[in-house]
């Protein structure tokens, strides 16, 4: 009862807005307006992440959307404008893809790419953690805070491919190796560009004895777009 009253008050003060176009949405539990729901066409990509390490061909990543248009704007608001509530929408779509593409796999848990403590404090949350927690409750596997950022590095999106790989080297570690040994792990981040961050995290998981690592993100930047920008 109290929850319902709280919902009504929240809806009055903060009307429910469409994740993609920001128009008011009447149904409180809906994430999209009717127009955006009709136009929503994910373009899922499932492929191995590239790596020059010895885990090449071992880590697949599923991402439902191309990082463009209204999805790109929504991710930006989610990351930089405090729209933490978008997480449930993104998680719902990623979870559907996981259930479809990885249906024969059993994950022991889901974890996420950590942020530097200072950055997480400034933002108030880690967007990858929010999505991982929401995916965890949909696909009913635990969510574990297993990785730690041990090196402060340069912002990845300002670098080209070669410098991205060098930039993340040694940036992550595992908090507790005994929780990784022989486990099948799903690793979550918001966007995949070169895949360097996810591969570096996967590498430390494998070094700690993980059996398998699969990745998921909201969106991917197509390789052609990425190389155009960084030639
Ligand atoms: Zn809309």
Give a quick summary of the entry.
The chain is α/β, with parallel strands linked by helices and 231 residues long. It is built from 9 helices and 10 strands. The protein has helices at 2-13, 34-39, 69-80, 87-101, 117-123, 127-139, 161-168, 196-207, 223-229, and strands at 45-48, 60-63, 65-66, 109-112, 147-149, 172-174, 184-188, 191-192, 212-216, 219-220.
Shape: globular
Q: How much strand? A: 5-15%
Quaternary structure annotation: single chain
Helical segment tally?
9
Poorly predicted runs: none
- Biggest sheet record: 5 strands, mixed
- How are the strands of the largest sheet arranged? 1-2-9-7-4
Structurally, the number of domains stands at: 2
Using the CA coordinates, give the radius of gyration: 18 Å
> End-to-end span in angstroms?
58 Å
* DSSP strand tally: 10
**What pattern of helices and strands is seen along the backbone?**
HHEEEHHEHHEHEEEHEEH
Q: Which ligands, by name, code or SMILES, are bound?
A: zinc ion
The overall pLDDT average reads 87
CATH class bucket of the largest domain: Alpha Beta
Structural class: alpha/beta
CATH architecture of the largest domain: 3-Layer(aba) Sandwich
Q: Which percent bin holds the helix content?
A: 25-40%
CATH topology of the largest domain: Rossmann fold
Mind explaining what this structure looks like?
This protein has 231 residues and is an alpha/beta fold. The chain has 2 domains: 36 residues, no CATH class; 189 residues, Rossmann fold (3-Layer(aba) Sandwich), CATH 3.40.50. Helices cover 40% and strands 15% of the residues. The chain has 9 helices and 10 strands. Strands 1-2-9-7-4 form a 5-stranded mixed β-sheet, with helices on both faces. Strands 3-10-8 form a 3-stranded parallel β-sheet. Helix 4 crosses helix 6. The protein binds zinc ion.
